Every structure is written in C-alpha cells, then in structure tokens.
C-alpha cells in the first residue's frame, strides 16, 4: 500500500475528469515542510505559529519571528504559505505565558481574543509577517473570529503596523487575508466579513466542537463528537456557497480535510483546497485521482438530505468501496 501511494508523489493532483485540486499541508515546524515538499504537496495551508513557542522559555521578538517565517517561506520556494496568527489558549497552552485559570478555557481567552488582550505580541507577529511578505506570497489568517467587529480590529492593527514599518523605512509586502471559520457564529456571520477577505479556511476541529458543544479534548464524549454530522455539513455548505458568491476560494484545514472518506463529498460541496497533515497527503491524493466531479456533486446532494448519522455514513460509503 505504501509503495502504491509513493507512486502518486509525482502525479498531478487532479480528479478523474481533470479538475485540479490543491492539497496543502498543516505544519508546525521545518521538518513538516520538508515532508510536504518531499511528497510534492502544493504548499502550506496552515502554519500553526503557536506551536513554534509551545516549549519556548521566552516569547520570540519580532526579529526572531521574522527569521523563522522567512525560513519557511524560502523553503517553500514560491508555493503558497498560509500562516495563522497565534492561537493561544484552550488546548494550546504556551509555557512562557501565564495563562489565566478559566472555568471554560475553550469558551474563554483564546485565538483572536487572546491577541486582543495582548496586542504587543500580536503586533510583533503582524510586523514580522508583513516584512516576510516582501520576499514572496504570504496568506494570513486569523483564528476564532466570530464577528465583523473583531475583523475590523484586526484590519486596523494591520494598517497601523504597515504605517510603523513605513516610518521605520522597512519594506512590507501585500498579504492575502482570511479567517479560520471555526465557530457557528463565524459561519453564520460570513456575509458581513467576506467583503474584507481574500479567502476563508474551514477549521472543522473547532467548528465541530462548538457546533456540538462537545469538548474536543475529552475522548470519553466522542459519541458527541462525530467527524461528520448533518449540522456540520450544513455549516460547511453554507460557508462554501457564501464565499463563492463573493468569488473567494475556500480551503479546509481541520481534520476532516485529511479524511479520505470525505474527499469526494467535500469536492462535491465545492471545496477548492484541502490542507491536512503531511502524512495523509497521498491517501487523500489517491481519492482525488479516482473522483469524478459529477458523481461527487451527487454524493454531496444526497448527503445534504441526510437527517441521521448512519444515513450520512452510508451515503459517503460507496465512494470508499471502490479502493478499500
Ligand atoms: C481547527 O480548529 O479545525 C483547526 C484547523 O485548528 P486547530 O486544530 O489548530 O484548532
Ligand atoms: Mg481551531
């Protein structure tokens, strides 16, 4: 099986009827980028920047961040480089920070909310990335944005970082802007935010957690955490359709993007791009290569009508039987 998959490395990633499907990788460090390049992935779809500081004794300053991100960008040699600003809090605990003890960390100070209350760290990251964008294409996305007011704040911060760089006679480049859609509020508020954005990426790990009100860190409640459920499917469909109405591409960076059982369904829903763990790239590529877009559209149509988990499972199962 591994040998058969290895043969796919140099194949172009297109569906059976020729639709190109970019498969990017979720990465946390340089070794992950080495792996994605070795497997001929299309680029980085999610750099989890907080992972770079999980074990750090102190927080990196702007210069250190600039060097680290520039290294990644140069390593990618022109392939897309999608960076998520630090998603600190809840399941992502950074040792160098004294995070407050909260009764419900997943509902507390995390993602963009943490950045909002600790703007200096956020600003140093924005400045570093604006400078890196001078050397190649950077896509920047923000975690846990629920509403347009949070996006307004981010855009104001970005603009003042640009002004500061200008004052200091440091160059900066254009950056494509996106949000990680990972709460039902973000999905249902998308129309207010899309005019300000260049892309969106659906974070199904948190989107599932917040849709089902089920803690992703608690294995004992996995029954309440199905990988795919009718409400999650409807939210995904809503995000894709809304973004497409604004002519924006939609990526997915949650675990669902790396689940080969969901590949045809996601293509049928209109997903433009997948971002997954590098180790799963070839499995998903195998699925893309055998998918026919018309059949995928029918699977999506049928799946959207399912009302129960077992119906939904059965609905995507025939796709898998061809190669399993
Ligand atoms: C997600 O929530 O789906 C996601 C990609 O981000 P993380 O798993 O890092 O929270
Ligand atoms: Mg998330």
TrEMBL record:
Domain of life: Bacteria
Uppermost EC category: transferase
Localization (cell): Cytoplasm
Keywords noted in UniProt: Cytoplasm, Kinase, Magnesium, Metal-binding, Phosphotransferase system, Sugar transport, Transferase, Transport
Stretches assigned to the PEP-utilising enzyme C-terminal domain: 6-291
EC number of the protein: 2.7.3.9
Reaction catalysed by this enzyme: L-histidyl-[protein] + phosphoenolpyruvate = N(pros)-phospho-L-histidyl-[protein] + pyruvate
Cofactor: Mg(2+)
Any one GO molecular function term: phosphoenolpyruvate-protein phosphotransferase activity
Function recorded in the entry: General (non sugar-specific) component of the phosphoenolpyruvate-dependent sugar phosphotransferase system (sugar PTS). This major carbohydrate active-transport system catalyzes the phosphorylation of incoming sugar substrates concomitantly with their translocation across the cell membrane. Enzyme I transfers the phosphoryl group from phosphoenolpyruvate (PEP) to the phosphoryl carrier protein (HPr).
Membership in a protein family: Belongs to the PEP-utilizing enzyme family.
Protein name: Phosphoenolpyruvate-protein phosphotransferase
Organism (species): Shewanella corallii
Lineage: Bacteria, Pseudomonadati, Pseudomonadota, Gammaproteobacteria, Alteromonadales
Full-length numbering of the shown residues: 250 to 573 of 573
